[in-house]
Specification:
Layout (H helix, E strand, L loop, with lengths): L2 H6 L4 E2 L3 H18 L6 H11 L7 E3 L3 E3 L5 E3 L3 E3 L3 E4 L4 E3 L4 E2 L4 E3 L1 E2 L4 H5 L2 E4 L2 E3 L4 E2 L4 E2 L4 E2 L4 E2 L4 E2 L7 E4 L4 E5 L2 H16 L2
Parallel strand pairs: 2-5, 3-6, 4-7, 5-8, 6-9, 7-12, 8-13, 9-14, 12-15, 13-16, 14-17, 16-18
Antiparallel strand pairs: 1-11, 10-11, 18-19
Helix pairs in contact: 2-3
C-alpha cells in the first residue's frame, strides 16, 4: 500500500515519500504564486486555487497569504470566504461546505503524531478528516484539530481550539472549545430587526 493511501485512510504513514514530496512541491509552487498576487487579480487567484484544490464552488474568495500541505485534499463549497493567513494542513481531507466564513489566521489541522515518543522518532504520522458544515462562521485564530466535524450554522468564537465535534446551530468557544448555547429563534428575530433597520436607513 502506498504512503499516500495509508495517509488518506488515517493509518500511520511516512511523509518522506517521493509521491508525497512531489505533491508538496507542487503545492508550494502554487502557494508562492498565489501569495504574491495583486488584490485585483481575483480571476487568476481563483484559477490557481482550482488548479490545486480537490474541488471548489464557483464563487469563493481566499485572502493571501494561504498555507497548505498538498491542496489536493481540500474541498470548498459555494461562497467560501477566508481572511488572511489561514493554514490548511491537508494530509487527510478537509471538506468545507457552502457559505462558510473564516476569520484571519484560522488553522485547520488534519495532521497528527503518535503520543509514544519512540514511534514518533521514527517519523511516522497520521491524518484524520475534518468536516465543516454549511453556513458556519469561524472566528479569527481558531485551531481545528484532526478528526473534528463542525455542524451546520455553528459559530466558533475567536481563539478557540476545537478538539471535539461541535453540533449544528450552536455558539461554541474556548480552549478546549465547548458549546456555550443554542442559536435560537430570538437570535433570528434580533438580526432580522437589525437587517430591517439597515435597509430602512438607505
Amino acid at each position: 500500500m502506498s504512503q499516500k493511501k495509508k495517509m488518506l485512510e488515517g493509518k500511520l504513514y511516512l511523509a518522506d515519500d517521493v509521491e508525497l514530496r512531489l505533491m508538496a512541491l507542487d503545492a508550494k509552487r502554487v502557494m508562492y504564486e498565489y501569495n504574491k498576487t495583486n488584490e485585483l487579480d481575483d480571476t487568476y487567484r481563483n484559477d490557481l486555487i482550482k488548479s490545486i484544490f480537490k474541488s471548489t464552488g464557483n464563487h469563493f474568495k481566499i485572502q493571501p497569504p494561504i498555507y497548505i500541505d498538498y491542496g489536493k485534499h481540500i474541498m470548498i463549497g459555494e461562497n467560501f470566504y477566508a481572511n488572511h493567513d489561514c493554514i490548511f494542513l491537508d494530509v487527510n481531507e478537509i471538506e468545507i461546505k457552502d457559505n462558510v466564513m473564516f476569520g484571519p489566521r484560522v488553522s485547520v489541522f488534519t495532521a497528527g503524531h503518535p503520543v509514544d515518543a519512540i514511534i514518533r522518532r521514527e517519523q511516522l504520522e497520521f491524518g484524520l478528516k475534518v468536516t465543516i458544515g454549511h453556513d458556519v462562521w469561524i472566528g479569527g485564530n481558531v485551531v481545528i484539530n484532526p478528526g473534528v466535524t463542525i455542524g451546520d450554522r455553528a459559530v466558533i468564537g475567536s481563539g478557540s481550539v476545537v478538539t471535539k465535534d461541535i453540533p449544528s446551530d450552536v455558539i461554541a468557544a474556548g480552549n478546549p472549545c465547548k458549546v456555550i448555547r443554542k442559536i435560537t429563534e430570538e437570535d433570528q428575530m434580533i438580526w432580522e430587526e437589525k437587517r430591517k433597520e439597515y435597509y430602512q436607513s438607505k
